[in-house]
Amino acid sequence: MRAIIVEDEFLAREELKYFIKNYSSIEIVDEFEDGIDVLKFIQKNEVDVIFLDINIPSLDGVLLAKNISKFSKKPYIVFITAYKEHAVEAFEIEAFDYILKPYYESRIISMLKKLEMSYNQQKDNSHKNSITNKINLWKNEKIRVVDLDDIYYCIARERVTYVSTKDEEYSVNVSITEFYNSLPKDKFFKCHRSYIVNITKIKEIIPWFNNTYNLRLQDIDYEIPVSRSNLKEFKQLMNI
C-alpha cells in the first residue's frame, strides 16, 4: 500500500510514521502540511491511503476528503485528529476510520491491521472478479456464486451493501465504496453515495430535479438516482 500523511504537527507526524513503519508494510511516499498541496499531488499520483488531520492550512481535512471522495479511484481516508465533532461528516464520506488524539498505540496498530486486511481482500476480490466474472455474495446464511453480468444495481444500508439481480437480492458486509472498488469499472458505476449501477442494464436516462438524472433499468421496475457530485463523470461515461 502507498500512503501519504497530512499533518502539520511535526511530533504527531513522526509518531504516526513510527507506528506505520514498525507495525505495517505500508509505504509512506510523501508527507504534507497543507491541504492544497495534497490535492495537487493526488491529482497526478496514485495513493492507496491518506492519513489525514483535520486542522491543516489552506484546505481543512474534511473539505479535502470531500474533494477526494469525488475521484473515480478513491483512496482510503483515515482521519487522525483532536476534533471529535467531525466524526459524523467523516463517515458520511465513508472514511475508513476516525482516530482521536492523543491516540493509544493499540488503537493505531488495530487500525493498521484492519486497513491492510481490507486492502488485500479488495485486491484479491478484484483480481478474482476480472478472471472469473463471478463474485461471492450472501443469501439466507449461504454463500452464493453470482455472475457479475446478472447484477443490476447495489444499494447501501448502513454498513451492509445489498446486491440486486433481476429476481434476487444478496448482501455483503462491506461498505458500498469497498464493494465498488472490487467491481470492474467497465460495467459498474457508483452514481450516488448509496448506489452502484450496472451501466449495461440502463434502459432510460430520465432528467430529474436540479439537472440530475434518474436511471430506469431493464427488466425491473426500479429507478436509480445520479447525484450531482457524480453527474459530470456520468455524462462523460455515457457520452451525454
The major beta sheet can be summarized as: 5 strands, parallel
CATH superfamily assignment of the largest domain? Answer: Response regulator
- SS content category: alpha/beta
- Percent of residues in helices: 25-40%
Task: Enumerate the strands of the largest sheet in spatial order, edge to edge or round the barrel.
Answer: 2-1-3-4-5
Q: What is the CA-based Rg, rounded?
A: 19 Å
The shape is globular
Domain count: 2
CATH class of the largest domain: Alpha Beta
- The second-level CATH architecture of the largest domain is 3-Layer(aba) Sandwich
- The sequence of SSEs as H and E is EHEHEHEHEHEEEEEHEEEEEH
Number of strands: 15
Count of helix runs: 7
- Give the end-to-end Cα distance, rounded to a whole number of Å: 36 Å
Low-confidence blocks of residues = none
Average the pLDDT over all residues and give the rounded result: 90
CATH topology-level name of the largest domain? Rossmann fold
User: What share of the residues does DSSP label as strand, in percent?
Assistant: 25-35%
Main location: cytoplasm
Modified residues (4-aspartylphosphate): 53
Domain HTH LytTR-type: 135-240
InterPro entries: CheY-like_superfamily (IPR011006), LytR-like (IPR046947), LytTR_DNA-bd_dom (IPR007492), Sig_transdc_resp-reg_receiver (IPR001789)
